[in-house]
Every structure is written in C-alpha cells, then in structure tokens.
Amino acid sequence: MSNLLIKNVRPMGGPLADIRIENGRIAAIGSSLVADGVAVEDAGGRIAIAGLVDAHTHLDKSLLGYPWYKNEVGPRLIDKIDNERKVKRDYGLDAHVQSMRQSLQSVGYGTTLIRTHVDIDTDQGLIALEGVMETRRQLAGVVEIEIVAFPQSGLMRRPGTAELIDGGMAMGADLVGGLDPCGMDRDPKAHLDTIFAIAEKHGKGIDIHLHEGGELGAFSMEMTFERIRAHGMQGKVAVSHAFCLGMPDWNASQALIDTCAELDVPILTTAPPSREVPSLKRLRAAGVRFGAGVDGFRDTWGPYGNGDMLERAMLLGMKNNLRRDDELVLALDVCTTGGAMAMDRAAHALEVGGRGDIVVVEGETVGEAIVTHAPRKLVVTAGNVVARDGKSLRERP
Question: Do residues 50 and 109 touch, judged by C-beta distance below 8 A?
C-alpha cells in the first residue's frame, strides 16, 4: 500500500477535485489538496472511477499468447468441457503463465479485484490451482485475486473430485465452487450436500455456476436456498449466471429474487447476449448484491472478449436496455463497487475511507467513458500506480 496525490480529476464525472491516498486508502477528496513528499499524478481533467471488479472469470483457461484457436466444438455444455480438458493436455497449458497473461491484461484495463474459478478435476488434479495461486502471490499489490475451487467437469459424475476440492480448500482456495447440480451431475441433492459440507468444514463460502434455465434452474436455486437456511450460511453463497432469474415468468423469478434478498445471496452475471439474464433494476430494487465478470475469453469455449470490465459495463447496459446516462452509472456500479460488495469488499468505493483503487478514464461523462471505453490513462491499486495508457507496468510473460 502506498501514498499518492491525484490532481485535476473529476470523480465520477463531477467537478474538478484532487484525491489523496494515504496508506492505501482514500484520505481526502477536495480542492487544492497537498501532500508533501508524496508522488503526484495529474489527471488532466479526466474522470476518476473506482477500480473495476471482475467478479466472475477463469484465469486458468485463457489461450492468450497462443495462435488463434479454431473452434469446432459441439453445442452442448459437456462437449465444451470435455474438449477443454483435451486441449489443455495437448497444449501443455501452464495455468500460472496463462493466468499471469490474463490478469495483467485486465490490470491494463483497470481491474483491481478478480474472482476466478479454477478447474479441479481427476485429470489434472490441483495443478491449475497451484499455478493460479502462484500468480496471486506474484501479483500481490497489483491486483487482488480471489480463487474458487471449481469442479468444471462435474463433481458426483467423476468420483474423487470432491476429495480434490477439499484438498484445494486446504491449500488456500477462498471459496468452494459448484456447477449445475441437475444438468451436470444429475444428482442435485448429493452435489449440493457435498459442496456445503466442504464449505462448512473449511469455514468458507460458495459460488455456484448455474446455467440451468427456467424451472430447472429455479429448482436448483430452491434446493440451494434450503441448504443455506439449514447451514446458517446467509450471505456466504453466491450464484453465478443465474439464467433462470431471466425467465419469462416474472412472478416465479420475482419469488426467487426476493429469496435471494432474504438470504443475502449475491448474483454474479456475465451479461451474455445469447441468454436471458437477471434484471439489473429488479435485483437492485430488491436489495440483492449484484456483480459482473468477463467470464472466459480467448479460450476453447469462445473467441469473444478481452478482459475489459468497462466494455462489460456497456454490454450489461445493452442487455438491460439502459440508455440514460444515469442508468449507465448503475451498470458501472455493478462492475465496480457493487461487484466488490458482492465479494464482501465493502470499502471498495470512490469515497473517503475507501480503498485507494482508482481508474482514470477518458470521456466528458461516465456514460461516454463506458460506451467508448478508451485506453485507461492511469490505474491505481491501493495507492500504487500499476498501469498507464492501457498497459500494465509489469510485462506479460
């Protein structure tokens, strides 16, 4: 953590001000601030926003640095999962190198906090987790990385995976992952009982991938709610994707949304154009914590994306039909402070006392900054300058 004075900046597009960071925290926001002996950055009248938050990604999957991957994978989820395991073996993919590449690219775009799901399965064991943990160690002070031990290939359908997830938690993973209890494992009771037992054993939270749509997804969410109540894990279980919350039956989805609010279940979206997604305004109105992420990109699943959470805010706005400038600010909040709150980081905000994670962006307004998502002029993590002009100061491997 460091001290820094940022001059001539417009916090969230407002009037010109200075921001002083002391010991990694925002100490003051105001006019004509001084800080003797402290590094000074002149923002030149640009906009300051809080550090961007990628609350759902897969650092171990990226093919950044490799030649273009020609995707000829079948349409089913299991087709993509099985193909990915094969490609990882064939390429000899190094999760540390790939996670460094993606993390530093994201830092260049202004991301200062990441939650990554890391594959653990009976083919590769804990190798990917070890690689991403090494990336987390090396990038401490540059970007904060939170790790989910994720059974991408299934839990009950691949005996021995549960024991590996348990071992991953003992190694230092932060949360237990789950995946489509019905659609993948076809044994929702055993799947959910297993991940809740592992989480309870290690005193950690849970983040469940739930691609299941409609009534099937609603059923899996209701079973998850039952276990949250039974284990007293209110506020400790997040659901990623949650496509069922976008189903056409608004009465049914509203009941699920209200229960998410009651049990404090954060929802993490990637706002994919191809699927129905949870409504930002409905979740916000209900008081549900809501974050967003870039998911995987440039990998065996799909070619789209680049790690830019400001671009993701634009996609979130498009998917939710947000057109007014004040509505675009809501989309940005999901990709900054809101996402951090979904990850239990309450102090990640552009305010006095907040963590000194600041991104200086181009634009007359926040809306223009989101839509144009021009290269970031400056990225600051806990008072340390970590990127300039769209590039991380640390070279990618």
Answer: no
